[in-house]
Predict the 3D structure of the following.
Amino acid sequence: MTAPQPHGAGPAGPAGPADDLADDLAVYADLVHETDDGRWAFGTGFTDPLAGVDTRVPAGIDGGALAMYCRMLGDDALVHSQRLQEWVTRAPELEEETAIANIALDLLGQARRLLTRSGTADGSGRSEDDLAYWRAPHEFLSVPLADHRDADFAELVARVLLLATWRQAVCLELRHGADPVLAAIAASAATELRYHREHAALWVVRLGRGTELSHRRMQAAVDRLWPLRGELYRDPPVVARLPGVAVPAAAVRDAVEDALSGVLDRAGVDGPPPGPATGAGRDGHHGPDFAEMIDELQSVARAHPGASW
Amino acid sequence: MTAGWTAEGGHGAVPTDGVPVEPAPGPVRADWPLWEVFLRGRRGLNHVHVGSLHAADAELALHHARDLYTRRNEAVSIWVVPAAAITASSPDERDPFFAPSGDKAYRHPTFYRLPEDVPHL
């Protein structure tokens, strides 16, 4: 997951082939009055959420448990992102495809930070790439809801709504946790997730109150996915080993349920209760098509080990 | 004006013939309506036309504009306007519209001597 360096391809390139691009950007000219970075037309506005944060594990926190907890949250984001990326070139409209890819990229960014934290917390020194590309499928700790392959657009938006609502609630709590790195990652993720939630909620309401067909398919998606949230409300054993750091399900459950039913009420869709939770996913057990997805996720990194760009 | 074209400028005139543009609820359509997008920069005073997009309604048009046109912190404010709501002058009528201004030098304030001590002129 070594990303291309952002400074390599600034929008304001030199003369030549970049002229067309410059013309294209001229429409923005009146928006620009001052930049804080000459390589970018508008300044980057970047703020590194981890700037100035001490990455040592604070005394009293179990580093191994913290690493595992970060892998759980990181794998949820990584796997959900991968499932969303499967929609790119298959989305119903170009504009919506960009929105989906945007959400997938946000989640990928969260996964990168969380997996990096996992590698530093347990002292193993494993990088985000080591963890994303060189683990076997049964070593991934994502919940079944993140693993799910969407059958249609209704399932896609229902799943983004469900996962983003839960994840945002968890991140809001994590901001006050005892690990400063995890708190900083969560604070920046929470604002992204708020937007994901809002975008998905718009669609759930729109489809739920749209035509007879769209309502039926939205209801079918909710019937299929809503029971899976049972796993979100079951604490994996590692949570008990991280008092003051990890967020127990009881701390977010009510808020998540209220937010979800608020959207479903507006959409005119019925939400089934949470299904039974067995700990599947968090213990490395995944469905039959999980290995296939991980295989695709890892294929380039494994074909060209150590490659970068 | 020529029916079926959006305002000239920005990312260019876009044919809108046959593209439904009313945001009001109505019958189910195969295509999403076209919207024009205007941004106001962090230090800008006015909104500037930057392009167009398709969206199911105004709220989603704002979301799409946020995703497509403000990825690098370009703006603090977005307007979206149904393309059909824009009445534009036509390229065909450019001469009768704008040529009469060409020889009227007295419309330009170039005959005044600016006093040295008046600021902000």
